[in-house]
Amino acid sequence: MQPVNWGIISTALIGTAKVIPAMQKSKHCRIQAIASRDLALAKKWATQLGIPKAYGSYEELLADREIEAVYNPLPNHLHVPWSIKAAEAGKHVLCEKPIALDAKEAEQLVAARNRTGKLITEAFMVRSHPQWLRARELVRQGKIGELRAVQGLFTYFLTDPENVRNKADIGGGGLYDIGCYPIVTSRFLFGAEPTRVVGLIERDPVLKIDRLASAILDFPTGQASFMCSTQLVPYQRMQILGTKGRIEVEIPFNAPPDQPCRIFVDDGSALGDASAKEEAFPVCDQYAIQGDLFSEAIRSGKPPEFPLENAVQNMRIIDAIFRSAKAGRWESV
Question: What burial class does residue 110 get, using C-beta atoms within 10 Å of its C-beta: 0-12 exposed, 13-18 middle, 19+ buried?
Fold first, then answer.
């Protein structure tokens, strides 16, 4: 298969530190260009990462006929407008999460995809990591009986007012940044959609972003609950509980690319973790896998497992959690 020529719009840290190096090691991705509104910055990262071309504007990169696909890690409020511009320029788009600021905005991307015929996908790399594929396989096989509950926790500590994650007017806050992960993985495991949600949010009095959020998602056959925070000790864990056992995902979201990952399968026959059995997964980079799968979809023309409509649904759930926290009641999705 001929590798896909990629361009990166933005020198955001998620791209330069994680995604670009991973895609450069992948089988089917060839990073050919990077763009920034600051040409010197684009040239700096192009040199440091060994990227052939550097552009001083996103428009210049989109005008490059050699570029077939674009990775968009811009701040959240720029995801939709620049993904649309990229698709209209004839590029396929892999866009960072959250794909939009609300479901209505995300629906604009569906219209752009339908209008241009270009592939647009939300970059939830966790769904292609072997540990999550195995967890879903075990659930489907009935290894833990009937799935009834999924519980998640995802936190970090960040109070820098200049960080984009702390700017409320451009889509900052914990629910957009990290709460989206337990939402999408719960849907991944249940293979269904929640019908209603309830949420509780605490906002930073100065930054105005949601710094602590909790939610319950009511699925047809069970419940998912999670808490996320941008101002707590860094930690993450997911518990998957069924009628006959449980699965624990040790590092569910920031799976390291340089060490094995583990899940634990437990039938509950002993207190604590005494009856839990470890399953380890060889070293892999989930960003490289994500890039290869997207490139393969471009070359094959086959629809992705998680089309853009899936991203719109994730935004509907986030919208409902925000509404619930404001209204103090359950909200329909």
Answer: middle
**Helix axis angle, 180-190 relative to 130-140, nearest 10°?**
40
Model confidence pTM above 0.90 = yes
Average pLDDT, the chain: 97
Q: Which amino acid is at 33?
A: A
Do 159 and 73 sit in the same domain of this protein?
Answer: no
Same domain, 261 and 274: yes
Q: Are 318 and 180 in contact (CB under 8 A)?
A: yes
Q: Is 104 a member of any domain?
A: yes
Gap between the Cα atoms of 317 and 194, Å rounded: 8
Q: Dump pLDDT digits (tens) for 184-235.
A: 999 999 999 999 999 999 999 999 999 999 999 999 999 999 999 999 999 9
Give residues with Cβ within 8 angstroms of 316, minimum separation 6. Answer: 103, 333
Tokens representing 314?
């994730």
Looking up tokens 């994650």, which residue turns up?
165
Q: Say if residue 26 is in the same domain as residue 103.
A: yes
Instruction: Give how far the C-alpha of residue 121 lies from the chain's centroid of Cα atoms, to the nearest Å.
Output: 10
Range of the domain at 52: 4-124+288-302
The answer to whether 250 and 262 have CB atoms below 8 angstroms apart is yes
What does the pLDDT look like over 284-330, one tens digit per residue? 999 999 999 999 999 999 999 999 999 999 999 999 999 999 999 99
Task: Output the six-digit token pair for 326.
Answer: 């404001």
3-state secondary structure 56-125: CCHHHHHCCCCCCEEEECCCHHHHHHHHHHHHHCCCEEEECCCCCCCHHHHHHHHHHHHHHCCCEEECCH
